Amino acid sequence: MRLKINPTRMQLLRLRRRIDLARRGHQLLQDRLDGLLQNFFRLKDDYLQLHARLEPELTKIFLTTVMGSALSHPKAFDPANQKKAQAEVAKTQTNIMGVKTVQWQLKQEGDPSYNELVATGELMAAAGQFSQRLPELVRLAGLSQTLKAVASQIIETRRRVNALEYILIPELARNVKLIKIKLAELERSTKVVLIKLGE
Hints:
Keywords: Ion transport, Transport. One of its GO terms (molecular function) is proton-transporting ATPase activity, rotational mechanism. It comes from candidate division WOR-1 bacterium RIFOXYB2_FULL_48_7. Belongs to the V-ATPase D subunit family. The chain has two helices and four strands. By secondary structure, it is an alpha+beta fold. It has a single domain (9-189), classed as Orthogonal Bundle (Helix Hairpins). β2 (86-96) and β3 (99-109) form a beta hairpin. α1 runs antiparallel to α2.
């Protein structure tokens, strides 16, 4: 990214200001990247803990549901024989180091269950257990979505930090050095001309 530059003192001052601005921007982006990484690891730990706690419970609920379904009368799955529960998902927007994320909360009213006359106890217990775990599942999905958003922002910020650190700042520094060399040459040639004129 070789810039066309005029070797003037004014250009030298402009480039020095740009270097200072780029260094300040680099430091701000580096601080933001550090904050994003800290938040990412905290969110990742929350996600992994919740996932590790829910996975065995959901596996057990699934197996209980399969066993209960196999032993239940086919009419148990008829919508007329099921009690419905109302669920509403509320979302709140949060901001993590400039990354807009959404957190989901599930509000349930009533418990879903089956008619006791046609469904087994296992199937009814599994429905109740799943209903209890559903808010945590929604939270897990929200954490997953937040992790993806923060991770993509980390990648973008790291790309900007690296572009400043390894491309723009060194190029500006090289241009400053070139201008200094050319100004020194001009000064020497001017001195030589003045000396020759003085003779």
